[in-house]
Design a protein that fits this description.
alpha/beta, 6 strands, 40% helix, 6-stranded mixed sheet, 7 helices
């Protein structure tokens, strides 16, 4: 948490310096890219082939249509407010993401290889190099500014836990400026709702 706040402080300090030069500098846009399941592993998930990847696609659609329940904007807004000690930041009045684009996350879910998802390692974690490579390969089109994506890490059906990595990165350079592991209990009727429920909890933090 402290690491996150410090990184955000650095990010916005640079923004304020630009504003303080007396020139009308554009405020960096914040983009939300949904949930990426490219590197996910599953433990104890026994659904038929095709159903799991389809659920991943539907999860991304769900969180951007049912925004009252899946308040993904809170991921960033909360921390902006926690470090908001500047009149300039208050003028910016950041309340939501400037752009929401789940096309890449959906595309990746459609072409992923489900056969490689199962694992017997309940302690599985995505290594740093793999995470860096994932973000570098993430198609952000002509977007600018910064991006936020949740990277699914381990879906543990036996314990009913969903592990994800919350990532904030520079859209142009693809450099990760923040990454933190988050996890929460899964639950609900149907494969989609079951694995979407941890996200609902993250977004309310």
């Amino acid at each position: 948490m402290k690491k996150f706040i410090c990184l955000l402080f650095v990010l916005f300090s640079g923004m304020l310096m630009a504003l303080g030069n007396g020139k009308a500098q554009p405020v960096p846009k914040m983009n939300f890219y949904g949930v990426d399941f490219t590197l996910v592993k599953t433990f104890g998930v026994k659904e038929e082939p095709g159903k799991v990847a389809k659920a991943f696609e539907e999860i991304n659609k769900l969180i951007v249509t049912e925004t009252k329940k899946y308040q993904y904007g809170n991921f960033f807004v909360k921390y902006v407010r926690e470090i908001d000690q500047s009149a300039e930041l208050k003028k910016i009045q950041f309340t939501s993401f400037d752009n929401v684009n789940i096309d890449e996350a959906i595309y990746r879910a459609r072409i992923m290889n489900e056969a490689g998802m199962p694992t017997y390692n309940k302690a599985f974690k995505i290594d740093d190099d793999a995470l860096v490579a994932l973000i570098k390969s993430f198609n952000t089109g002509k977007d600018t500014g910064y991006g936020v994506v949740y990277v699914a890490e381990l879906l543990n059906k036996e314990d009913g836990i969903g592990n994800f990595i919350a990532v904030c990165f520079n859209v142009k350079t693809k450099k990760i400026v923040f990454a933190d592991r988050v996890s929460a209990k899964a639950g609900g009727f149907g494969l989609r709702n079951y694995w979407a429920s941890p996200l609902e909890k993250f977004f309310k933090l």
